[in-house]
Amino acid sequence: MELEGRVWKFEDHVDTDLIIPARFLNVSDEKVMAENCFVDFRPDFARDAKPGDIIVAGANFGCGSSREHAPLAIKSTGVGVIIAKSFARIFYRNAFNIGLPILEAEEAADALSENDAVSASAKKKLVAFSAELGEIRKHILVTKVGDVRGEQQMREKVAELYGSVASYRGKPTQSQIDRLIDLKAETVDMEKKVDAILDKYLEQLNRQVEKAGLEQIKITSYEDWDAETSEE
Question: What CATH number corresponds to the domain at position 113?
């Protein structure tokens, strides 16, 4: 079997200042960010990491600052995917917003060790799975109109429609009905896209995970995930 992608193993609570030191906050050059990713914390990573390598970490990866420089620095190195027991909430959102593949998988994080090699096929499936889910999430979350994020736009549409209907004592107007239909269609479309991605990848991935003796990947709602991470 062809093997590729070295594992770089990190412990719990790796914060953004360890990922990219604060002195590089004003740097936007990808090459410079890549050369200085983990430069103080893991100089060997900054020196030896290759495109396609994999970061495996413990809990709360990416805690600390809310700036996007940390995920941008990692993405600039060409890392294929980050697998962690859990991610800091803001880092999680920022990674999705910039298209950095991440996967929360506690048993996989425990099972993989420093310098392990991950098979090309397994890595590609993980990266593709994470990337396609990320595209769906970006459709909902990332900036679509000016500085207004898609998630905020959806909430504002619902709030506007609710306010319009609540303040109107007569029969709903055709405009109100049309807006409700549009919102329902947009939600159903997103659900279908997510279901299609799960059908495409999840069974194959779980077969590989099961062979490795690991707990299978489970699906949880954003509300449940948000509630769990809020309690940490």
Answer: 3.20.19.10
